[in-house]
Amino acid sequence: MNFEEILELVRDRVRQVAPEVEASKLDADVDLRRCADLDSLDFQTLVELIAAATGVEVPERDYPQVRSLRGMAEYVCARAG
């Protein structure tokens, strides 16, 4: 998967976790918890959905790196096989 495909996958998983959010309009560089109004459980669910879809696990210590759409996509892209 390339960066754009992963970015779209992340947006799709945001839609699953927060269906009321228009994920296509989210700024790729803004903290997802703030702009998509995700609480800690929602964010953890998002990370788990992305891991299930990509095989890339994100340990909690790396959460600061994956706070935004771009950060999540870059993280997964760098680690995807």
TrEMBL record:
Gene3D superfamilies linked to this entry: ACP-like
Positions of the Carrier domain: 4-80
Protein name as it appears in the record: Unannotated protein
